[in-house]
Glucose-6-phosphate 1-dehydrogenase (Candidatus Nitronereus thalassa), 511 residues
Amino acid sequence: MTTAGTEIQASEAGPVGPACVMVIFGASGDLAKRKLIPAIYNLAKRNLLPREFAIVGVAREEMSTDGFRHKFRSEIQEFATASIESDIWEWIEQRLYYLSGDFDNPQIYNLLGDSLAHADKQHGTQGNYLFYLATAPSFFSRIIQQLGVAGLTHEKDGCWRRVIVEKPFGRDLESARSLNEEILQVLHERQIYRIDHYLGKETVQNILAFRFGNGIFEPIWNRRYIDHVQITASETVGVEQRGGYYEGSGALRDMVPNHLFQLVTLIAMEPPLSFDADPVRNEQAKILHAIPQLTPEEVLHRCVRGQYEEGKMDGVQVPGYRTEPGIASDSNTESFVAFKLNIDNWRWADVPFYIRTGKRLAKRITEIAIQFRRAPFMPFRKTAVEKLTPNLLVLRIHPDEGISLRFGAKVPGPVVRLGAVDMAFEYADYFGCTVSTGYERLLYDCMCGDAALFQRADMVEAGWRVVTSVLDVWKALPPRSFPNYPAGTWGPPESDQLLERDGRHWRLNDE
Ligand code: BG6
């Protein structure tokens, strides 16, 4: 690549966010220590947090505010994405408060009201509250109901009240609908921020910049030029310590209606009228509605599920899914899913989107590969047709974030032969490595009232509508071949056959 990137100046990080208190329900849990507090630190370091700011942690664990401050003082050293500057950390620490109590106990919400009033007085936070539900999903609706009863979600005198709801948002269409109904009895849609941490990733946000900030790709971004799209989110880790959650969820629920459908919509959506929340989300929602529900026959034909057995990863023997902690020895939960979906609209009719995700796979990679159609006529007789690689655009989300374009070039020599070459852009070369947790932008946007990177009720339901059609069939027909792929491979053979039947193959399996 040329040095054009040197002309790009580091832009201003942005205006300081508005005065507010962030309330973290589940503050003694993993998410707070691994992501939320480190993200708050990064925002403070980039001068994006207002001076009028405070955090109130709420959790069942008995702890004093002093104990809470002490806990994060040591944990931030472990989980921060960069070294800690003591003056910035002290500034945050002086704004940390803690309340212990049961989320179902109305009393805790009265005490929370007192703490918030205290924060408003002490730190000038002006009655603006951001409630972050970092709890088990069964508490989402109950906490919101209680906040409503305590009058803490009521926006009055120009102040705002917003709630960030973590995933999973429901476990099928019906439960997602009920959750939406329940929380919409208390909150307006504009107060609800359904978070998907994939949208906090710079490289995911860059899909929009790439597509709509450049004039050259949009004219070929359709069924006339694109043969198919492959999306892979493969992990090398197993279920780790999350067996309790994962066993009741499985790969499909865990990754598809949220993270992978976000990627699908960003790739497939029409240009929005602006980057404001609703224009963007309207276009994403249209794509989700254009994905047809699968019939039982289609589920059997187009959806593959898998579960890993023991195997070798980097030469080390690892256990199978059924012997992981918290997993039943006869578990039928899938740790892998691959399927083919269509988007029934004018732009994408007949262009398959192949999607796969799983644990204990051969490599840790998240990428979107867009394969273009072959040139209509190939006058290169000296190159075997199967060697003429079609143009391929790869958007790499993780690791080695970047974009590459594959095209054919003449192999030097007296005869004309083609070889495939890659033109590659890597983020790190141009913009350095951004050290972030991925939650900074999402927290900041919520404080600023920008919901563009959060899911709306209709989007969540549209995603579940498709996924539920698969879940129903899988539930009725338990898998007969589990476990069906060794750890360290690319999943069960049916996943390869899914593409082979269409004369295609997973590109990463060859690398
Ligand atoms: C989470 C899933 O939402 O996303 C995990 O629950 C998964 O199972 C994780 O490992 C993947 O996210 P990332 O950012 O590591 O690709």
